[in-house]
Write a structure and sequence with these properties.
Elements: E1 3-4, E2 9-11, E3 28-31, E4 34-41, E5 50-53, H1 65-110, H2 115-157
Antiparallel strand pairs: 1-2, 2-4, 3-4, 4-5
Length: 162
């Protein structure tokens, strides 16, 4: 494939497939990993051409960089999910204990045990219960986020982002 520049020069790729067989010899050369090709003015003789780097750019990424990067993210999401699940499991017995204590405190208050003392205990248990429920709601949001992030990974890793 030939590429024309605004000044009328043609850059010939190193494969030289579009050039006649006689012109293919010694047209391209390699220098420090770069491919140089003769650039000739259109319709002029070969002695007037000059060498220029056509592939002087290098990609700043290697093969499978996205898969490697996002496999780390996948592993991290797994760790986060396990941590969330552990905390949810630890909150269940705590919630049960607080609920049981509140039920016993209400029963004791109904049976005539010091209403002021039981009222303060019940208030404390209600606050603890609210804290636990708030934490459970937050953990549900975190779980939803992790699930959504996992679901989005295939879209990010698809060849065209679709």
């Amino acid at each position: 494939m030939n590429s024309s520049s605004p000044n009328g020069l043609v850059a010939t790729p190193s494969s030289n497939m579009s050039m006649p067989a006689d012109d293919r010899k010694d047209v391209s050369s390699k220098h420090e990993g770069l491919v140089f090709c003769k650039v000739r003015p259109l319709g002029r003789n070969e002695k007037m051409g000059c060498n220029m780097a056509l592939t002087a750019f290098r990609f700043p990424f290697g093969q499978n960089v996205d898969e490697r990067r996002f496999s780390r993210l996948t592993r991290l999401l797994e760790v986060i999910q396990v941590d969330i699940e552990k905390e949810v499991a630890a909150l269940r017995p705590c919630m049960e204990r607080v609920t049981d204590c509140a039920a016993f405190a209400l029963e004791a208050m109904e049976n005539g045990e010091s209403p002021e003392c039981m009222s303060a205990k019940i208030d404390t248990l209600e606050q603890n219960l609210a804290i636990i429920r708030g934490r459970q709601a937050l953990l549900e949001q975190e779980t939803s986020f992790v699930d959504a992030a996992r679901a989005a990974l295939p879209r990010v890793l698809s060849p065209h982002g679709s």
